[in-house]
Every structure is written in C-alpha cells, then in structure tokens.
Specification:
Helix content: 40-55%
Strand order of the largest sheet: 5-4-6-7-8
Number of strands: 17
Radius of gyration: 25 Å
CATH topology of the largest domain: Rossmann fold
CATH class of the largest domain: Alpha Beta
CATH architecture of the largest domain: 3-Layer(aba) Sandwich
Number of domains: 4
Shape: globular
Length: about 650
Amino acid sequence: MGTVRRIIDEGFGPWTLSEDGTCLVRRDDQPLDEWPRQSGCWPRDERIPVRPEKPFRVAVVGESVARGFLLDPVVTLPDLCRAAFREAGLDDRLELVDFTVNGLSAAGAAKLCRAATELRCSMIVLYVGNNFPRSTPWLDDPETRQDAARTFAGRGYEDYLAARREAMAAFARDFCHEVGETCRAAGVPLVVVVPATNQLDWHAPWVVPTWLPEDRLAEWTATRRQLDEPADGTVVQDPARHMALAERMTTLDGGTTARPMEIVGRSLVLLGHETEGLGLLSRAVSVGADPANYERRCPTEVAEQLRLLGRAPGCRIVDVPARARERYGVAAWGKEIFLDYCHHTLDSLRDVAADIAAEVYTGLGLTPAPGWPERLARTVSPPAREMASAYLLSALHNQHWGQSADTVEHWLRCAVETDPTCVEDLATYFAMSLPEAQFWLLGDALAARSERMYWFLKNFSHLPVLDAGFAERALRVLPEDGRQRLAKELDTLWRELRVERRGEINLLDTFWRERDSGPRPFTVVAGESSPVSRYGFIASGEHPLHLDIVLVAGPGLPRGRFDMWLNGHHCRSGQVTSEWQHERVVLPSAMLRAGANELTYAWTTAARDADVATAAVSTLGTGPENLHLVRLARMRLTP
C-alpha cells in the first residue's frame, strides 16, 4: 500500500520543512497552486516548530476576515486570540499557530486543516466562507456547462441561478465533509466560525437583466431611471418611494438581480420592518449573479453548511451573525462593525476573538481566570496613527469597490478624527498612484514611507477615476488646514498628469491591475454601475481636447445609442453597433476643469439574443450576467 505524503513534507504557503525536520521555515519563493500569491498576505512567522512547545496547540485556519484585513498587521484575529489566552491566565498552556491568509481558497483551507493535524494541534478554529463564491468551480466542467446552458435556454435565468446556488451549496457541503473527516480521523476537535457580512451599507453592483424580453427590460430600465439614487449609491431620504420603485424592478426581473432587492430591504429597515428587511438583504447576497467576479460575501447556502458542520459531534460553533445581532441589534449588519463588505472593526473583531477563545477553553476543558473578557477589551489598543491608517485604507477599499459617498466619507472622517496627521498618508497614496512611480518595482524606499499603503496598493486594481472621486471626497471631509495641504499636494502631483503635458492619454489604461497581472482588454459588463461607465483624467482646462473612441456592441446585442457627459454636461450622442467603429469627439474648453475631469457614458440597454447567451454558457462558461454590454478598444485623449 502507498502512503499519503504529509502536507508539511511538501511545504505550503510561505513555509517549507527544515532539513532536520524539526520546524517549518519561511521561504522566499512564491506560493503555488491553491495558495494566494499576493505579497504581504500571509502571517510573518519565520518558523513553526513541528512539535508543540506547550500542552495545547490551537491552529486558526481562515481567510482575510480572520487575518484582520485592513487592520493587519497592527491587529489580527490570531493576535487577539493570543491576548485572550494571556488575559485568561492560560498563556503557559496554550500556543497558537496562525494559518490565516488573505484570498484563501476552499482547497487551500482544507490543506491547512490537514497541516494543522500533522502539527499535532489539539484544536482547529476554521473561519472561512466569504471566498466560496469565487472558489465554486461553477461552469468549469464542460458537462456542467451544457447542463447549465440547457437550463437557461429551457427554463430561463431564474432557474439558471437556482442551479448555481445548488452548486455552491454542494461545493460547501463537500468542503465541510472533507474537513470534518480530516479532523475526525485525527481526533482533533473543530471550532467552526460562521462569517457575518455587511448587508446594510455594502452595495452590490447594478446588473442589467439583458435576458428579459424586450418590453420588460424597457420597463425595468425606465423604472431604474426614476430612482432618486445616484450612480454611486448615495442613500436618499424617501424610503417608501424608493422601495416601491425597487419592488417594481424586482417583480419585472423575477428577483434575479441583487441591487433592487437590497434597496427594498434597506427601505424596510428604515421604515422599522427590520426582520423582513434583513431577510431580503440576506436573500440578495445569495441571488447568485456575480458580474466581474464581484461578490465577496458569505451567502446563506454556504453559511448553513458551516452551521451544520459546527453542530456535528466533536465540533463547536461560533455563529458570528447571531452573536453580533445579540450585541449590536440591527447595527450588526452595517458599518458599525464592518470596515467594508465583511472585514471587522477592531471592537467587533475583538468580540469574535473572545467568542472563539471561550469555545477553545470549553472544548479543551480549561478554566480561564475570571474577568478575562473585560481585560481583553482594555488590553488591545493600537496607537491612534495606526488606527487612522486602517480607517483610511477602509475608505480606499470602499472607493475601489464603487461604494457610496456616505460610506467612503464616513471612514475618511473616522481617520481624520482619530489622527488629523493622516493627511500625510493621503498625500503618500496619491504620490504612489503616479504612473511614473512604479513603486511595485522600487519596493523598500516607498514601503518605508507607508508599508501598509504599499501592500494595499500593490494588490488592487487602480483606475484614475478612482483618484479623482476619492480626492473630491477627501477634500470634503478634511478640516481646513488638511484640505489646503492636500489640495496643494494634488496640484503639484497632478500637474504632471495633465493631458497637455503628456501629449496622449488612453483612458482605458490602468496604472496597475489586481494581483499585479498585466493590462487586459477593457470591457463594460452588466454589473458596472448599471449601463454607465466613468473615466477620469487631468487637464489644464484652458484648451479643447480631442477624444478618439473605438467601440463595438456586446455579443448578441442590437444597434444601440450611447450618450456622453463631460463633468455633468451632455456633449455627445452616438451609435454602437455590432461592427467596430471609430468616433472622434472634441471636448470643448468651456466644459473642462482645471484639475480632475470626469467623462461619463450611458449605454442603451437592450435584450440580448438568447441563442448567443446560451452559446456563451455552454462554450465559454460565461454567465449571461457577465456578457459585455459594450467593448472598447480605444479611448485616447490628445491636446
């Protein structure tokens, strides 16, 4: 019989087994296979002994929510658990192995659980679920694609989504079975942590339901225009009217797009119907439409499988949604405890750590010293500058994902109130954003100025329009002295980015792309702020500019119209067809601003040829929600 090779023998993540086999040591090469490749996303432990050094060893296996994303490395969940062990007087009996990592896949989590049993852990804490929508191998298999295409063609998009949710539930069930069997075979008890997600203040993207018949799509689009909500998701003050319009959209699309459901759910909460509203918000997370691989929240289908695992023999459970609701009420679903879509504030992450520690003590039969939770609350208190940086990163992250001005400015305000000198970090961000900086190649010099900002920027996509919008919001929030300082910095930095100075700018170019990959052909998918695209550029405002556009309609879409606005003023209407075409537009100086300018396109929505959508599912594994509305090959600005 063959033997199963140990995970620790092969090495995993940033660690490999030492030559004498006594410990795992950090290596310099990049992780492979199921392991995330982003820099700075793993724990920084240089060595992990193979044999425990204390009576009980506990491993925490988790994704970015357990890593403490946006707070890391100043505060992480494993660090808070270690602090809880100390405050409970159990530090001499408990040691913790940190297996938390940003971007962890389900396959990677299962391997880390195996590695934890090989490291003789007495207990494993499992905190995953938010990455499962991206981990689910939906439509990877050719046979599954064919089945999904037949479902879409024969029964419609609603049943297609139901099949996707069933696949996600099955994937989560298989994962839980694998982890459960690993722990049972090794005799290691498991603490399952069910993630909570931000449902009140996190906005899903608009998805245009091009799978609807022409007449229903036209009515859906007309109703969408009546909503008072601007494109960036700013909340309006008339929830009853808002709810009525969104309910009409949900009726028209059969509940197949998340954003109208979210509007209805939030409106119900504002009107005092919290249970009904939160139930609808939870359903919206599980709708399943995932344009541009956007969703990052644990859906109900995954959470329920994790709960089943946590209630199995030999397992314990920390149900974060239930416990947060007990502590915070309806605020448990918004920015009171979340920095973005799922990552916790310091206070709520500390609560999660306390709940985990309590389950560890009980599961291992340990008696903590009285009053340890209260001492834990007082012990972990990072410097104001570090917390201000976390809030600033939260504002940037929400801006990156197109969240509302209200949310972005909330975290900017928290940063300024915590430490007014954080304007220096804002200036650093914009300095790092310059295309000439190429900071990912320079590394140490720029990282020394703001290491957390360095790693944050290295791992996320970046568009100039994000800077323009973020700068506008920052200038609104900063006090007068900070506002003047940032405005002066921006004037100096952006002077070099003017179209007149550079001679030519392609508005489709990003400064860098997510995961440090190279440039990709730009497309507008159904989920990008409804059928609206926005681009930013810097100009002197003194002279007209010329814009060259090359574009084509998305597959299966008929001829349509586009309208262009410059800084809120209509400046062009044109046609988009099934053939590539070139248009040249003059942007008059009267509409331009000195500094940041915004160019906005609104695209006509139209029903897509069902045969084309079906073929995309069966052949490419591309769902109808991810098919292009329009493709752009060039948007070149010249003086």
